[in-house]
Amino acid sequence: MTAETELIEQARAWAAQDPDEQTRAELDAIVAAAERGEETDLADRFAGTLEFGTAGLRGALGAGPNRMNRVVVTRAAAGLAAYLKDTGHAGGSVVIGFDARHNSDVFARDTAEIMTGAGLKALVMPRTLPTPLLAYAIRELGCAAGVMVTASHNPPQDNGYKVYLGDGSQIVPPADSEIADRIAAVGDVADLPRGDAGKVVSEEIVDRYLDTVAGLAGDGPRHLTIVYTPLHGVGGTTVAQVLETAGFDAPFIVEQQEHPDPDFPTVSFPNPEEPGAMDLAMALAAEKRADLVVANDPDADRCAVAVPDAHGWRMLRGDEVGALLASHLIARGATGTYANSIVSSSLLGKMAAAAGQPHEETLTGFKWIGRVEDLAFGYEEALGYCCDPEHVKDKDGVSALLLVCELAAAAKAEGRGLTDLLDDIAHEHGLHATDQLSVRFDDLAQIPATMERVRATPPTTLGGLAVEKVEDLSQGSAQLPPTDGLRYTLAEGARVIVRPSGTEPKVKCYLEVVIPVGTDEDGGVDAARISAAGRLDAIKADLRGAVFGG
């Protein structure tokens, strides 16, 4: 049997167990084309299976084991059910949430039927809702696990499957590999027992979440003109209700992006960090003379912020929003550990120390931040913030958005803005400026090859600063588990981290420089910003050559 014939037989066997008429027909058409000798992507679809890891599953929709589809999701659900039963949770409850992406509701229903078929209880969220609401529901409902069907801010052709355990945190090793082993042991999905579609959770859980989030806001000014966009996602209704309950006027909402739409027609990528994604919101803000622009990504677990400045509107970096939220919580007396990922700014550690609070650095991802003991606040530079870990041990774009609005309203009442508050922080701790350099690869094999090349020949200087220390993060340490990445400590407090993205086919470089802020006569924060921009540009130019060869 030739390799091509074997591949076609694999595809036929897969199609035979596929309960989805659409993906079955899709695969039949590809097989027919392959039999005619036409070029197809059949080999890629069967090159392996979507890897189940600490982010669960995420990939392009389509037929075959290397795509997101009902067979892959059913196998994942069966593996999770087996893991729960093997770890003492037989008969326990699993709460299942879903966003508005293509097939999210279908994947949620398949998961529920597999859970009930395995003797577990399936609780299904009442409608498309934000990911942090699912994380909240896990602990509120006393569940053994939770599943959120979402691909967050990925392109429209993708979907994903995020798994949480009963503590409300995303899975980490060894649970991920133990679940993956059970998924691999699942046989033909047509033979799996299926039960009913579970019980729909009452809207009361939504109301409790809304009240909990709104309750985070203290007393204070509420006069603020806000522009908001959910970027075609599921955050709109939730955010509007939270702001109203907390006493804010209704925000102006970007009409073209107000309602959930899995095709995300107005943006190239539904990620507020991507160039152009916030253009409509900032144009509306200019028209309404707004004080603040806030946005969520499509599943509302991230929060983006834009502010007016002398040149129009500008997006705040995730590190800037993290510093603002930390300063707000510190000022309110929030005690406990302040945590951020290794690729985020070192500023949070200095702020926590000045406030007499412990600080911890974690690997990238809220699966790690959410597990920090006695967490008071955690964030990562990719617009993820955990402001209420008592109730949501994950990033929550709704609660972060509310607290940013509260902080902006208080500043406005004093004739100031969020940029003034950032200047205050820079005066106290130095200007911490961050930037990124990333390259997307079509050939995934180039990602490990790039990492190995940089390991073999690390740079000795970057942007005119000596590389004083090189750490291979894959070796692990007393503070951090192993992860694929390199950290360069540069002179004068600068730092660079190089790592593959966990969710996209990219290698990313995270840059930070620290510039002391002089007196007003020396130019103060403005001069420090100019100096930082030049230094970041120089480091980025050298990195492009050292890491990507040009």
From TrEMBL:
Q: Which organism is it from?
A: Nocardioides zhouii
Q: Per the entry, which co-factors are needed? A: Mg(2+)
The reply on keyword Transcription regulation is no
Q: Which PROSITE patterns match?
A: PGM_PMM
Q: Which GO terms describe its biological process?
A: carbohydrate metabolic process; purine ribonucleoside salvage
Instruction: Tell me the keywords, alphabetical order.
Output: Isomerase, Magnesium, Metal-binding, Phosphoprotein
Residues of the Alpha-D-phosphohexomutase alpha/beta/alpha domain: 51-185, 208-309, 318-425
Q: InterPro entries, from UniProt? A: A-D-PHexomutase_a/b/a-I, A-D-PHexomutase_a/b/a-I/II/III, A-D-PHexomutase_a/b/a-II, A-D-PHexomutase_a/b/a-III, A-D-PHexomutase_C, A-D-PHexomutase_C_sf, A-D-PHexomutase_CS, Alpha-D-phosphohexomutase_SF
PANTHER family linked: PHOSPHOGLUCOMUTASE 2B-RELATED, PHOSPHOMANNOMUTASE 45A
Superkingdom classification of source: Bacteria
What is the name of the protein in this document?
Answer: Phospho-sugar mutase
Alpha-D-phosphohexomutase C-terminal domain sequence ranges: 465-513
Query: What family is this protein classified in?
Result: Belongs to the phosphohexose mutase family.
Q: State if Magnesium is listed as a keyword.
A: yes
Q: Name one Pfam family in it.
A: PGM_PMM_II
Q: Name one GO molecular function term.
A: phosphopentomutase activity
